[in-house]
Amino acid sequence: MALTYTPVDDIPKIVQGLRSAFNANLTKSLEYRKQQLRGLYNMLSENEAAICEAVFQDLHKPPAELMIGESGMIKQECIDAIKNLEKWAANRSVKTGIVNKFDNVHIRKDPLGLVLIIGAWNYPLNLLLAPAVGAIAAGNTVLLKPSEVAANTAALLTKLLPSYLDQRCYRIVNGAAAETTLLLEHKFDHIFYTGSGAVGKIIMGAAAKQLTPVTLELGGKSPAFIARDVDVAVTARRLSFGKFFNCGQTCIAPDYLIVERGIEDKLIEAFKASIQEFYGSSAKSSSSYGRIVNKSHFQRLKSLLDQTKGKVVVGGETDEEDLFIAPTLVTDVEKDDKLMEGEIFGPILPMIIVDRLAEGVKLVNQGDQPLALYMFSKNKKAIDYVLDHTRSGGVVVNDALVHFIVSNLPFGGTGPSGIGNYHGKRSFDVFSHERSALIKSMGMEKLNDLRYPPYTEKKTRW
Ligand code: NAD
C-alpha cells in the first residue's frame, strides 16, 4: 500500500484543530476516553488480516510475532486502561497538618493537552499505539507520526483510524525527517519519541525550544551474561527467541553475549539446535522467520558481517534480493571488533568469551547504559554481582525480552538508552499532570487570623 505524506500546508491546520478540540474539553469525560479506547481495540480486532498483511509487507513479520509483540499487547493495554480508568484518574488525597484540617487537599490527574507520539519502524503498531493508549486514557488530544520506513503499516493505519477514533481529537501526520521537522516547530504539551539516540537528540533539541517535556525511548547495546553454571540448552533457546524474534530488529534484543569460558562449545551446539528447532533446516523458507526492513539496513548488517574478525559458527548466509540474513552466531569476538561498535539491530549475535564475569561487567561499564541487560545463571551471588555492578533500563534474569510485556513493569531506558518509561498505569501517568489542589471552604475565617497582618508580637511568638 502506497504511503502518501501529509502535505506540509495541512500540518498547522491539523495541529490547531487538535489544540481547539482539547480546549473545548472534548476529551475530558472518562466515558468518552473509554469509548475511544474501545474504538482502538476494535480497530485492531476487526482488521487483523489487513494489519497482518501490512506488517508482513514491511517486515515479513510472522503473524504470531505480530500478535505477541504488537497487536495482542496493545489490545491488553486497552483492556487494562478501560478497566482501571476510574481508579487511575481519581483524585488522590494527601495528608495535611492542622492548618488544613478542614480543607480538601488532593492531587488531580489532569491531561497534559495536545501530545505528539513519534513511532519507529521495527514494531510499527506497538510503538505508536501503546503510548497512544496512555495518552487517550489520560484525556489528551493526540497527534500520531508513524515511521515512514514501515510504509505499509503507516498507510493502513491512516486509512483505518478515522473509522474508529474521533478525528477531531486524534490524527495522523505522515512523512519523513522534513515533515517531522516542521511538526516539531509547533507547540506540544509532551513529545513521546521512539527511535535512535541520534534523532532523539534532534527531538529533544526542538522540544527544548518550547520547554516541552519529552519521553525518549531509545536503544543501545544490550548484553547477555552467561555464567558457567547454566543449563546450556535452555539458555540457548531463550536467547535464540530473544535475538531472532523480528529478525533481531528489537530495541531490547540481546546485542552480544558475554560467556564464561568453558561452556562456549556446548553453547554453540545448543544454539544450532534451537535455531534448527525454531526454523528448521532453512530459516529462509520458514514462515516463522522475518526479514530485514530495507536495503540500507541489510547493507549495514552485511558490512558488519564482512568486517568482523570473529568466527561465524552458525548461519552467516545472506540474500540481498530477499533481505534475508540467517540467524547468525559469531564467536571469538574481541572488544574492538566492528560488531561491538554500535547497536547491531539485526540477527547477528557476537560472543565474547571471558574468564570471569567481572571482565564482562567492566566491558559493559565502559559503554553507555544499555536499554536491557540479561543475566543467565543459577547462582544468586553471581546474579547479584552483575545486577549490583551494572546499570541498564531494565534487567531480566534467565530469559530475554519478556519484561516488555509485563504491563506493571515500567519500560524505558536510562542515560543514552532513554528518558522516562511507560506501559500500563505508568503510560497513563506519563500523559497526566499531577495538579495539586487545595479547596477551602469560605467558613472558618477565624482560623486564618494568625497569618494576616498586622503581625503583632503575639502572632509571631512560636
Ligand atoms: P525510524 O527510522 O523509524 O525513526 C524513528 C522516527 O523518527 C520516525 O518516525 C522517523 O520519521 C523520525 N525521524 C527520523 N529522522 C528524523 C529527523 N531528522 N527529525 C525528526 N524525526 C526524524 O527508527 P530508527 O531511528 O531506525 O529506530 C531504531 C532505533 O530505535 C534503534 O536504536 C532501536 O534500539 C530504537 N528503538 C527503541 C525502542 C524503545 O522502546 N526504547 C523501540 C524500538 C526501537
TrEMBL record:
Organism: Dissophora globulifera
Lineage: Eukaryota, Fungi, Fungi incertae sedis, Mucoromycota, Mortierellomycotina
Annotated catalytic residues: 217, 251
Listed PANTHER family: ALDEHYDE DEHYDROGENASE, ALDEHYDE DEHYDROGENASE TYPE III, ISOFORM Q
Name of this chain's protein: Aldehyde dehydrogenase
InterPro entries per UniProt: Ald_DH/histidinol_DH, Ald_DH_C, Ald_DH_CS_CYS, Ald_DH_CS_GLU, Ald_DH_N, Aldehyde_DH_dom, Aldehyde_DH_NAD(P)
Family per record: Belongs to the aldehyde dehydrogenase family.
Sample GO molecular function, one term: aldehyde dehydrogenase (NAD+) activity
TM region(s), chain numbering: none
Swiss-Prot/TrEMBL keywords: NAD, Oxidoreductase
Residue ranges the record marks as coiled coil: none
A GO CC term assigned to this protein in UniProt: cytoplasm
Pfam families: Aldedh (PF00171)
Domain of life, source organism: Eukaryota
Gene Ontology BP term (one): aldehyde metabolic process
Residue stretches making up the Aldehyde dehydrogenase domain: 9-433
